[in-house]
Amino acid sequence: MNLVHSTSSADDRAVMVTRVSDMQWHAVEDDLTVGRGDASRRPDGRLFISIDAWHGAVFDRIVAAMLADLPTALYAVVDEADHDSRSAWERAGFAVACREWGYLVPTDPHISGLGSVRPPSGVTIVPAGQAEEGPLRTLDRVICDEVEATIGWRTMPAEVLPRPAGTTLVDPSKYAVAQHSDQYVGLVRVAPLIRQPRIGLIAVRADRHRRGIARALLAHALGSLHRSGVSAAWAEVDEANAAATALFEGIGARRTAGTLELVRR
Hints:
Layout: E1 3-8, E2 14-21, E3 24-29, E4 32-41, E5 47-53, H1 56-69, E6 74-79, H2 83-91, E7 95-106, H3 109-112, E8 123-126, H4 133-149, E9 175-180, E10 183-191, E11 198-204, H5 213-227, E12 232-238, H6 242-249, E13 254-264
Parallel strand pairs: 5-6, 11-12
Antiparallel strand pairs: 1-2, 2-3, 3-4, 4-5, 6-13, 7-12, 7-13, 8-9, 9-10, 10-11
Domain N-acetyltransferase: 134-265
Protein name: GCN5 family acetyltransferase
Organism: Streptomyces noursei
């Protein structure tokens, strides 16, 4: 596929924007690649685009080509502190759809105050890697349905968006679970990234809310990281998720970044 969009820069040098594949565009000026555009479809079906360009004029030409070639709605993600990038997307007709906060979460129980936290009566925590895959997948499907019926999975971080099969469960070994009797009722997922572990998801069945299960799962996960020598983890929370925001800020997590999801319909 080689759809070409030709425009001229201020000094009359031609900038050629070519769709080199279904999901990629290149901008070339004087035989030099001066920008790239990429598109990717998330598991929930939404189409996200990103652009890497040397300067604003090239960005504008790439995004114009992509908008001409792709159906709407289109989404993009930008660092809230990157005002230039946000302005560039807004010039192209994108607007803020939601905001996601990034938190640095202390693992030291003396800082988080989680050292004395225990699971509620009758609930035990099954460590990561020890949960049975069948019951874990059942819990995952229940939580997926409950989240979709309330705040919606579109408010969740990209890494936990449901897959086409309707599951967010990719690697069962990364999940610790809360068990009551013979049933799994809550889970926490920690991605053991080299630079900084990431709390990708913490969720509890709706009929077990407000019993301290989420707090106990978080205490377990952070305690395990602390014992392994990790001083802090990373977590991302949609600003509309008041319960998650309160949970993390209540243990001393520090908000250090913000990410904006933009949309053009």
